[in-house]
Amino acid sequence: MTAPRTPRSGLATLAWLLGWMVLLSLAAPARAQLQPPLTVPIRDAYVELHTGPGRGYPVFHVAARGERVELLLRHTDWVKLRTERGQQGWARRAALESTLAAAGITPGWRDAIVDSLASIDTLPGGRLEVGAAWGRFEAEPMLELWARWRAAEGVSVQLAVGQVQGLYSGTDLWRLNLTFDPWSDRRWSPYVTVGLGGFTDLPNLSLVDATRTDAKLANAGIGLRWHLGPRLVLRGEWTLYTAFLSDRRTREYRALTAGLSFFF
Question: What is the CATH number of the domain that holds 137?
Answer without folding.
Answer: 2.40.160.20
